[in-house]
Amino acid sequence: MKGLSCKCGFKTISTCNICPRCGATMSPQEFQDSGRVLSHVKLGISPEKRSEPMDLVMVEILDGPKIVCWTNREISKDQVVRVRREGGLFVCEPY
Asked: Is the same domain home to 91 and 53?
């Protein structure tokens, strides 16, 4: 997963290369595609361009930032999941 990191420790998957924390220019970094579930909420709604209902999950990438992704799988707190980008959305699923 492509992202950016700053010398101050801030990490993001955003494309803006200016750090919101310290104002420095950030460097490209490749992050792992797995993370730990911090929280999740059952929404049962379909995100744009998807037909099946999905739920929201907050994931802390193992070596990177926290991101919000979608899933249609059963997820629990602290579970390790794989994250991938799918048509502009981040989707996660259990290993």
From this structure: yes
The answer to whether the CB of 64 falls within 8 A of the CB of 57 is: no
Residues in the chain: 95
Instruction: Give the CA dihedral 74, 65, 4, 95, nearest 10 degrees.
Output: -30
pLDDT in tens, 60-76: 999 899 999 999 999 99
Same domain? For 22 and 39 the reply is no
pTM: 0.86
pLDDT cut 70: percent of the chain above it:
100
Q: Hey, is 13 helix, strand or coil?
A: coil
- Contacts with 36 (C-beta within 8 Å, 6 or more apart), sequence order: 59, 60, 62, 78, 79, 80, 81
Do residue 63 and residue 78 come from a single domain?
yes
Q: How many domains in the chain? A: 2
